[in-house]
Design brief:
3% helix; 12-stranded antiparallel β-barrel; 343 residues; 21 strands; mainly beta; 62% strand
Length: 343
Amino acid sequence: MKITLLLSFLLLNTIGFAQHQVNSFYSTNGFVSTALATPTPPNQGSGGINQNWTFSGFVTLATITNTNVAPTAAETTTYPGTNTVIVSTSTQGTTTTTGKIFTKNTAGTVSITGLDSTGLNINFNGGSGGSGNATLGAFPMVYPFSNTDNIVSGTYNYGTNSGTFSGTLATTVDGYGVLNLTDFGYSGNVTRLKTVLSVTLYLSIFPVGTASQTTYTYYDPSDATNNFKFRSLNTVVVASAAGINQNNTTYEIGFVPLLSNTNIALQSLWIQNPVSNAIEINSSSAIDNATIVITDLLGKTIYQTINNTIIGSFEIPISLNKGIYLITINNENGTITKKIVKS
């Protein structure tokens, strides 16, 4: 039961810019961000005024296209009150996945009504009249904004697991300063939005575990598009009876970086995910003298081989534990890193 509550805090236009504010919840239609990974999580600190956030050591994984659409009649019935659906389409090589976030916007006050992604459905439908919706608050939010919704509740389904949940969503504009993304040549003034979702999971009336997600999202208030510059999402799920102890963090930047250090053949390379007892590397062009290194997300080397030629389908027989890994392939022409998912 992997719970990853992708509460994507994507922002669009506002009226009048304050110096330190988060302007709106919705991104520009067609906004493209880039999923990242790093073996060394950045220290994002506790917030406050005049911060200097400098993050580096990231590798790119996939591109994500975000659009805002009206709900269908069936979605409105399933997620009452929904008036905007955020659709996120992630593309890595030939693999495409889609997720939806269902939202309710009432005069600028935004609530999450549901989430639907591959194998996972979360419906904030507890209580009556939308009282279980996860309410962030009214936009624009000016530092030091704070709002806590104490009656978040609803139902969840993941694979064969299902039940109910209840808890809180705390939303704060908790700091501002300068953001430096040294890997991508970005530096700018930003304001940070922090959200903390904490719920107890139930099977029938019995508590079976807890789930939480902490999100940090950085925006430039003077940018009229209001698309975020950087975002991290840390999800923790503990359900002892089901043997679950999960702690995952994902990262995104709000643009597609130039891969100037990677040749055309490396750019076209893709990995077949998820993997089982072998890793399949695919390339339509020959990649000669390739060094292949597989690491876990803490940077520990799991596998390494040198002087390989990759053309067509290239397999590495290897047994991995369930989880996420990084595979780095390089030769004299460049370097590229991809994500490996062992299911």
